[in-house]
Amino acid sequence: MQARRLLITISLIAAALWGGALGYLHMQGNAGFLDRMEASLADLRSHLIGPSSAPSVVTIVAIDDQTASANGYPLSRATLARLVETIGALKPKVIALDLLLVDPGPEEGDQALTDALKGVPTVIAAAGVFPSSLQSVTSSAEDPLATIPVADRMMLPIARFADSAAIGVVNVSTDQGGTPRYIPLISRGAQRVDASFPLRVASVALGVNPAFTPAALALGELRLPTDIGQRLPLTFYGPRGTIPTFSAADALAGKIDAKMVEGRVVVIGSTVTGGGDVFPTPFDPVLPGVEVMSTAITRLIAADNIVRDGNVRSFDALLGVALPVLIISLLGWRRSAVAYSAIAAAVLAWLTFNIVAFSHGYWFSAALPIAATLPPVLLFGAMELWLDRRRATHFAAQSEMLQRIEAPGLGEWLARDPSFLSRPVRQEAAAVFVDLSGFTGLSEAIGAARVQEVLSGFFELVDDEARAHGGAITSFMGDGAMILFGLPRPADDDALRAAACAVGLGDRLRAWLAADPGLSGRKIGFKVGAHCGTVVASRLGSGTRQQITATGDTVNVASRLMEVAASHGFELALSAALMNAAGAEAAPNHQGHIEGPVSAKIRGRAESIDVFLWRGHPL
Questions:
Q1: Coil, helix or strand for 476?
Q2: Using CA atoms, how far apart are residues 482 and 472, in angstroms rounded to an integer?
Q3: pTM for the whole thing?
Q4: What is the chain's Cα-based Rg?
């Protein structure tokens, strides 16, 4: 019990430290393995919740296969200018071109596009080029932009376009599978800081300038929590087409519904087959990049983005400590249906909370509690199994020792019925007593070590014979022992087996004494008495230490019969009651020499009893 308490204490401390370490990494954004795991779990929650309708904020005009077939691909600057003018005439809030216009084209087309961009609020795309997929940043409480990585270079629109429209950076942050998880709201180059494409579009559409704090973005009266590095956590409304999409060819032909443009943000982008600007999402394996941008724009303007900020991450870290500590505490409290039900309830409550929160726009980590809980709980379970195995080994050793003392099956009987003989029971049984004669004087001559050796040999011999005949050694007193037949329950052949055991003891002891050179020349002998009848079987001793034994006249007579055997010069004295109960097949009738019955006076008893005397054949 003390070892288990120590294990529980160590496990609780280890679980808290492990969960705390993971929580710290999670709050710093440095737990890449958790992010990889979280990506899959976020997709699973998205599937469980299912698609939702996008607010009526953005309309996509796609440069699709139909457009490319009719106008060529990529679109000429003149055609693009005409597309902007056509859409601008329908009075959108802003036109956003998710296209990189970094190289000059024919002068006539570039001038036409420049004029078109000036005629309506527009945003055009830029992109940052980073040296690797992972960037190192530093944090600063005073500088909300300190956690934003710096690009090696910026791919900017040519100057004439940049002077005619606002610029936004189209970079996205993806997981290991390529799914967009975040929109970096700010991008930094060596000499400049730019808003992201979705943020620039949203600020132009709302007519406000963005303002940043270390944990949030303000767009006028809107306050949107942001994640580490001023990133917007991104979730999707549904598969391709969830945000209304029209072909640029239809727009150029005047076939687009004006109601789908007026007062909305219109995003122009490429969806042409083979264009390469596609991303896998939980709802669609090939969502066009223009729809990723449009989703982020919608989230910003509608302020319905999912929340994963410092407060959410702090709660994740707290849960990463609390959940494993709770489960280990419940396992340590008791291994029962109640504890397991409590654990199941706690896990179910956490899962329900996590999924419901995700559906309501709060992205609590699922990976962190799992990673924080599984290793400590599994390790605790493994250590408990190890302790159980140690205890089982210990109990097995104790059981083996018990079986060496008790009859085969008595230990198992006690294990099945711990209340066995908790109250005295009167029953029929046969008792055999055996004792070494002349040993007391011998022990003074041969020394303690030799005494132990002799007694060990004597015990092993008696134990073998008792076990061989199904008897229980209920007491072993140095150079004597009592063997009882009839436990745990009386049997018809108790007397027969007791007689056989008595004869076996005689033969074995005679040979053993003769074979030991240290004993054969000395006056050492043995005597055996056996009787059957009613006994009182019970447990003797305190609650912490008990011994199964039997008392009564039958036991007293069996003990006194050893004196009868010795006084008549025989090895064994068996009561006529036992011989009659054993029947003609009794071993004394077929081995050695038997005489009787003779009437024998029993010390302490008024009446004599009939006794059979037996000795084995000389060696």
A1: strand
A2: 8
A3: 0.67
A4: 47
